[in-house]
Amino acid sequence: MNPRELRAAIGAIPWAHRIDLGNGIVTPGEWDTQEILGRLRIPEDLTGQTLLDVGCWDGFYSFEAERRGAKRVLATDSFVWRSGRKQGFLLAREALNSRVEDAEVDVLELSPERVGTFDLVLFLGVLYHMRHPMLALERVASVTKRLLIVETVIDLLWMPGKALAFYPGSELGKDPTNWFGPTPAAMEAMLRAVGFAGVERVWPSEERLVLWRAMSVFGPKAIKRAVYHAWRE
Ligand SMILES: C[S@@+](CC[C@H](N)C(=O)[O-])C[C@H]1O[C@@H](n2cnc3c(N)ncnc32)[C@H](O)[C@@H]1O
Questions:
Q1: Residue 153, strand partner residues
Q2: Rounded to the nearest whole angstrom, what is the distance from the C-alpha of residue 191 to the centroid of ligand 1?
Q3: Residue 228 Cβ contacting ligand 1 at under 6 Å
Q4: In the chain, N or C terminus with fewer CB closer than 10 Å?
Q5: Band (5; pLDDT cuts 50, 70, 90)
Q6: DSSP-H helix ranges across 102-181
Q7: What domains can you pick out in the chain, each with its CATH number?
């Protein structure tokens, strides 16, 4: 595909991710994936490692893992891919001449038998879409050998304890596919409860969280997100 054909193909797709395809061509994604990438603290060097990207959509993080040297990357999704929005992933993979593998797998279908196990698992922007968050975390944990990185919505920041906000309608972001937002303490406890020995919040910083807590009491309510690293040992 020459650059002109590539630009035309990109223009026909509704992108979620901004993916640099080389030659100055970047997909016009809705989300600032580079900024989010910085918050995730994915190891810079993934040489020889295996990585699973759960709910990957256009696959930006999968391609980035491959660029960082991962020897095997499996990109999975179900909801948007099955709704006809897999063209972005397929086009980016072709343009990047990437070896990232793909599988249409629901989170609740993840198991070592179905997909294998992986050194590193990304679970980014998916947990709040789960009607059964603990079950989803159990499935994701079952395929994680070393490190799970979770990026998700946190809520009820004024509350010191472990609790989950429940969004039975479209309360969160006007999106009826969003279900739960845990407090930071609940998120950590949930990851420990599914078997992770070490859990660390890597975004936001403690100082930023204190600020968000104050804002959640006095200021306008805005969606807040956090990133956790959960280690097997
Ligand atoms: C907010 S997007 C996040 C996409 C990407 N991980 C990111 O961080 O940019 C949520 C993704 O989760 C996927 N998803 C939602 N429910 C799912 C399920 N039950 N099984 C697998 N993927 C699911 C959607 O298809 C979508 O790609």
A1: 225
A2: 19
A3: no
A4: C
A5: very high
A6: 112-115, 133-142
A7: 3-231 (3.40.50.150)
